[in-house]
Amino acid sequence: MNSIQLLPPKVVDQIAAGEVVERPASVIKELVENALDAGAKNIEVRLQEGGLRSMEVRDDGCGIAAEDLPLAVTSHATSKLRKPEDLDAIATMGFRGEALASVASVSRLLLTSKTAEASHASQIRVDFGRGQEVREVAGVQGTRVLVEDLFAELPGRRKFLKKAATELSHCRAWVERLALSHQGVGFRLFHQQRLLFEVQADEDLDRRCGAVFGSGLAERMVKIEERGTYLSLEARVGPPESARRDAGRVHLYLNGRWVRDARLLRAVREGVREFVESGHYPTLYLAMALPPERADVNVHPQKLEVRFRDSNLVFASLVKALRRGLAQAPWATRQVGELGSEAEAGGRMRSGSSSFSSSMGTASQVWERPLADSSGQAAMESQPDSAGPAEEDRTSLPFPPREQEGLGPILSVANTFLVREVPGGMEILDQHALHERVNLEELRREIRQGQVISQPLLIPALVDVGRQELALLLERSETFRRLGVEIEAFGETTLAIRAVPARLERLQADKLVMDLLDLAREHRQASPENLQEEALYRMACRGAVMAGDRLDEAALRGLLQRGAKLPQDRTCAHGRPVRVFLSLADLEKAFHRR
Ligand code: ADP
Ligand code: MG
Question: Of the bound ligands, which one is closest to the alpha carbon of residue 72?
C-alpha cells in the first residue's frame, strides 16, 4: 500500500461533484436556485441537446462583484452563511457553497456577472477545474452561467447520462418545480432556441399550474388552503382522471423547497384515497410551511428528503387537510348547471384513430392512466413526462340531472355493468363500485347524525373466535357500536353479534366479524376515529352487491337514485371509477361518422 496523502483539490471537487451533479437537470436546479437566491425577477434557461451540449442560465439578480468571481467557483465559498448559528435558520436555497465549484470541476463553465455598482461585467472561465483570469466584458446587470460539455473529461460519468430527450425532460421538470413555488419570478425555458415553457413574473399560482399541468386540467384543480399556527398549507389537487401510476405530477414543497419523501407521498395517497385508485398518485401541488426548527430539509445533499420533529402530526394534518378539501371538490358533485360545459368537454376528449376499439380506448382513458414505468422505483423517481408539455386533460364526465335519474331504460351486462343513455352520450356503470360508494356516503351521513342505524338480529349470530381475538374485538366494541355493529361476549371464545347496520342487508355476520377482527389487528395502534374510518370502507365494500350478482330492475333503479343523492358517485371507496362516459362524439367516431 502507498502512504497516505491528501487528495489534490481538483480530485476532491470532482468527488464532491458526484454528490451535487448527477445529470444536466441537477446543474439546472443549482443554477436556477442561485438566481433565485440572488433576487432575480426573471430567469431564462437555454439548453442544447437536452443540456448535454450546453446549458445557460441568465438572471437579472444582484450579480457578483468582479473580485468575488474566483471565490464563487471555489468550493465551500458562499455569501449565504457566515457563522454556525446561521445553519439553523437558512432562508436561501443554497448555502453549502459547493454547486458552482462542483459544476466547474466537471464541465467547461463560463460565469459572467455584473452588480448594480460595477461599471462593466466581469467573466471567469473554468475548464474542468482549471480556472482562468477574471476579465472585463460587456454585459447587463445580473448573472449568466454557461455550462458546456458536462462530464466530457469523465467518461465514467458521461456514460450514465440518457438520451437528450430524457435529460431535457428532467431539466424541464426542475424548471417547472421551481416556477410553481416562486411567484413573483418569471421563468422561460428554451431548447434549441425553441420556447418550451414560460411563466410571467406576475402570474399567480393558478396560472403557474396551468403552465405546468395544462390549462384545462388546472381549471379543474381543487384549491385547499389551511392556516394553522403550527402548519400551514396550500394545495391544488387534480381530478381523479389525472392521476398517474408514477409520482411525476406530485409537487410537494416544504418551506419553499421541492421535496420528495416516501412518507409524505404515503400521506398524500392516504389523503386522496377515495379519489385516486390505489397504486396511483394525484396531480398535485402542495406547499407546506412549518416553523424552520420543526423541519429539516437539509438531510441530503440534494435536499429532497425531509425530517420532521413531529412527523406523525405533520402527516395527520396533511391527510386531514386533503380529505377536508376534497370533500368540497366540484368534480365530486353532480351539478345540473355544469351539464352543458361538461358534455362539451366530453366531446373534446383525446382520441387516436377512428376504429371502434380505439374510440373505446379514448373513453376509458378517462380512467386508465398511462403505465409510465412499471418498476417499483418509478414512483419515487418522479419520471417527468418526456412527451413534453403536460397534455391537455380536458376529459370530463357529464352528470345526468338529478330529476332525470331513474328514468330511461337501463341495460345490465353480465350482471356487472349498467349501460344507459345520459345527456351528451352514454355511460357505463359498475354496479359494485356504485353500491360501495352509496354505502360509504350513507353510512357517513348516519354517523354525522349520531351513529349508524342498526338492525337488531332476531337471533344473535354466534361466531367462534380465539380468546385473544375476543378480547381485541371487545376492546373496540364502542367504535363498532357507532358503526351499527353490536357485539358482546358469549362464553369465553364466542362472540355474539346482536345488531348489524340496517342498510347493509347483504352483510353476513361471520364475514363481518372476520373483517372487524382483521381491522382490529391491523390497526392495533389506531385511534378510534381511524379504526372507524377503516371499518367504514370495509363495511361499504362488503355490504355492496358484487360483480355478477343479479339485480332486478327496481333494485338497479333504486341504486342509481341513491347514487344521484350523493355528494359524489364518480369513484368507489377505493378510488376506482364508478362510471365511464362515452360521448356522442366518441360514438360518431366509432361508426366513422366523423
Ligand atoms: P451556494 O449557493 O451554496 O452559496 P454556489 O456554489 O451555488 O453556493 O454559489 C457560490 C456563491 O456564488 C453564492 O454564495 C453566491 O454568492 C454566488 N452566486 C452564484 N450564483 C449567483 C447568481 N446567479 N447571482 C448572484 N450570485 C451568485
Ligand atoms: Mg447555490
Answer: 1
C-alpha 161 to ligand 1 mean position (Å):
26
Contact 445, 562 (CB under 8 A): no
Tell me the Cα Rg of the chain. 29
Atom of ligand 1 nearest to the CA of 59: 23
Greater pLDDT, 111 or 257: 111
So what's the pLDDT on residue 354? 29
Ligand nearest to the CA of 57: 1
Residue nearest to atom 1 of ligand 1 (CA): 97
Strand partners, 145: 57, 111
CB under 8 Å to 480, separation ≥6 — which residues?
A: 473, 486, 487, 516, 535
Query: Which pLDDT band holds residue 298 (cuts at 50, 70, 90)?
Result: low
Mutate to test the pocket of ligand 1, among 41, 78, 86 (most ligand atoms within 8 A of CB): 78
Structural domain boundaries of the chain? 9-199, 205-327, 454-502+507-542
Q: Answer whether residue 383 shows pLDDT above 50.
A: no
Whether domain 9-199 has CATH 3.40.50.300:
no
Question: Residue 510 and residue 498: Cα distance in Å, rounded?
Answer: 12
97 CA → ligand 2 middle, Å: 6
293 against 433, higher pLDDT: 433
The H or E element containing residue 440 is helix 431-448
Distance CA 470, CA 578 (A): 37
Q: pLDDT tens for residues 325-361?
A: 887 776 654 332 222 233 333 333 333 322 333 333 3
Give me 16's grid cell: 464532491
The residue whose CA is least distant from atom 7 of ligand 1 is: 99
pLDDT in tens, 201-229: 999 999 999 999 998 889 889 999 999 88
Confidence band for 562, pLDDT divided at 50, 70 and 90: confident
- In angstroms, rounded to a whole number, what is the distance separating the alpha carbons of residues 137 and 180? 34
Q: Which protein residue's CA is at the shortest distance from atom 14 of ligand 1?
A: 78
**Residue 81 or 216, more confident:** 216
To the question of domain 205-327 being in CATH 3.30.230.10, the answer is yes
Query: Could you tell me the distance, in angstroms and rounded to a whole number, from the CA of residue 9 to the centre of ligand 2?
Result: 20
CATH assignment of 454-502+507-542? 3.30.1370.100
